[in-house]
């Protein structure tokens, strides 16, 4: 029977990096979001300074600042806050993957998860993402595997255990 076991503890930097990569992979934000933010904010400030401080220029600047705050929050603050506030991210994970299920254990959690709850398996150079929906996913650091062969075995096992799961590999 195919079986892969992993044990790991997230670091704050690793978790934040994983979430930030996911934000781009899932297109919650795109590089264009940051370009648009810079242009919109620059235009809002310039319009406010050079077109007199009328209602329209104040409104434009307010919207530009709010958009900037939203992007900053989603990309920089929210992942750090989620790590800090979520106890399970500070615990050692022990996962066992078989064709039948995923056994998930931490000091405070013990669960038996069916593969069918995951609809997508995404991969980049550093992480696997087991995705239930756009906002619910499990991050699995590749460093948790003991060898490159275990990474290959996990990938094959996941695809065999849940044949309808969509697989996608992302470049760096």
Protein described:
It is built from four helices and eight strands, in the order βαααββββββαβ. The chain is of the alpha+beta class. The strands form two sheets. The protein has a four-stranded antiparallel β-sheet, with helices on one face. Helix 1 packs across helix 3 (55-85) and helix 2 packs antiparallel against helix 3. The longest helix is centred in the middle third of the chain and has 31 residues, at 55-85. The chain has helices at 12-25, 31-50, 55-85, 148-161, and strands at residues 3-8, 93-98, 102-105, 110-113, 120-123, 127-133, 136-141, 166-169. It has two domains: 3-10 and 88-169, PH-domain like (Roll), CATH 2.30.29; 17-85.
């Amino acid at each position: 029977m195919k079986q892969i076991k992993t044990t790991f503890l997230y670091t704050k930097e690793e978790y934040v990096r994983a979430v930030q990569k996911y934000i781009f992979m899932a297109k919650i934000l795109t590089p264009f979001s940051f370009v648009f933010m810079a242009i919109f904010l620059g235009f809002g400030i310039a319009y406010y300074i050079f077109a007199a401080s009328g209602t329209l220029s104040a409104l434009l600047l307010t919207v530009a600042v709010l958009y900037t705050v939203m992007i900053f929050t989603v990309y920089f603050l929210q992942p750090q806050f989620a790590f800090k506030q979520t106890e399970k991210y500070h615990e050692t994970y022990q996962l066992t993957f078989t064709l039948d299920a995923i056994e998930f254990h931490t000091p405070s959690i013990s669960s038996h998860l069916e593969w069918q709850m995951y609809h997508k398996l995404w991969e980049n150079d550093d992480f696997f993402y087991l995705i239930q929906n756009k906002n619910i996913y499990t991050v699995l650091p590749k460093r948790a595997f003991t060898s490159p062969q275990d990474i290959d075995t996990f990938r094959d096992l996941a695809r065999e255990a849940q044949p309808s799961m969509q697989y996608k590999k992302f470049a760096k």
